[in-house]
Automatic annotation (TrEMBL):
Keyword set, alphabetical order: Cell membrane, Membrane, Transmembrane, Transmembrane helix, Transport
UniProt key word Transmembrane: yes
Taxonomic source organism: Streptomyces variegatus
Domain spans labelled Major facilitator superfamily (MFS) profile: 32-423
Entry-linked InterPro entries: MFS (IPR011701), MFS_dom (IPR020846), MFS_trans_sf (IPR036259), MFS_Transporters (IPR050171), Sugar_transporter_CS (IPR005829)
TM annotation in the entry: 38-62, 74-93, 105-124, 130-151, 163-185, 191-212, 239-261, 276-296, 317-338, 397-416
UniProt main location, coarse: membrane
Name of this protein: MFS transporter
CDD domains reported for this sequence: MFS
Amino acid sequence: MSESRTLSAETVDEQQAAPPEPATPAPPERTATRTPTWWVWLAAWPVTAVFVLSNAATPLYVLWQRDIGFSKGTLTVVFAFYIVGLLGSLLVSGVVSDRLGRKPVLLPALALALAACAIFATATTVAALIVARLFTGIAVGAVVSAGMAAVTDVAGPERKRLAALLASCAMVFGAGLGPLLAGLLSETLPAPTVTVFVVEAVLLLTAVLAVLRMPVRRPAARGKGAWVRVPGVPHGNGIHLTLGIAVFAPGITATSFVLSLGPTLLTELLGTTSRIVAGAMAFVMFLAATGVQFAVQKLPRRTILTAGAISTTLSMAALIAAVQASSVALLVASALLAGSGQGMGQLGGLSLLNSTVPAQRLAEANAALNVGGYIPAGLLPVSTGYLMDAVGLPTGATLFGTVLMGLAVVGGLVVLSGHRRVSEPV
């Protein structure tokens, strides 16, 4: 009898020592952390595919200028409608994505990008180019908010730094791949303005498939406030946003100038209208933006941002020297430095936001960073295009370089003074 009581007591002790019930809530967490790393890379593909479209038209503008007939000023207006669409999209896409989920924003954006391909392929008027650029801008606005946030969602909290790196590199790599592909295809295959956008449409269709299968969930709770509003960040994150914009804005304005007026500068300096040369210059610019991010990814964010401001400043010095000396080598150096400046400003800004902003506001925070960057990227190159028509290319480019150099220096000073109030996030 005492033996039986002993066994019974041991059984009770075992049951108390190892209760099975508390282990039940664990599976959802384990599933989230076990998302394969290749899915994090694949989640960045829609960002790349849409950004290929964003700059695919760059080497083709000389063809449209020849066939349709329009000035450098009109060319920068066509380019600026992309910024108009992008900024309009950013007013709503980040908020909608945080409330309804990433897919309800990304799928319509990809549909608009496919429509832009069809319009570009059949464009015979400036109005058609403007509509295609507008649609492209709306699609890009969606992917820089919802698409980049989706990469972070798929990566999970333990891989935020990787998510920021891949999302940022997907953007600049796609932006560089677009003009290179367009330049090569348009010079080697018939019907250049058709072939380029047929190929891009195929890339976008693969991005649609990736979004449909992407392992992201709808938000558990919806935020409050207006659906259409100037995007912002939660209280306490304003300093992180300011530091990112201070460096990202001059950097992306420099690369926007190269994209919109780079082919014109090449024609004036080199006397060539080769679309491969124009596309290759844009490609190496964004290749530098991609490579530099992998090179500096482990550095403190403050160091990355400071280096980005210095790179953009040197880029503008090289641009001024290039137009004064009619030097193609200096123009290419300016493009490489501009790409590096944008890449580091973008990576530093995104990393600060990824590490400090809660997931339910992340798409809106990404949108806010891009609003701050793309406003000067739209205004300054357009103004410079018209200025060049009035005072000539060397004077217009020199004034642009001087103004942007000043903005880059101010951005660097903002980072150096602001870093004392910001602890380095994990």
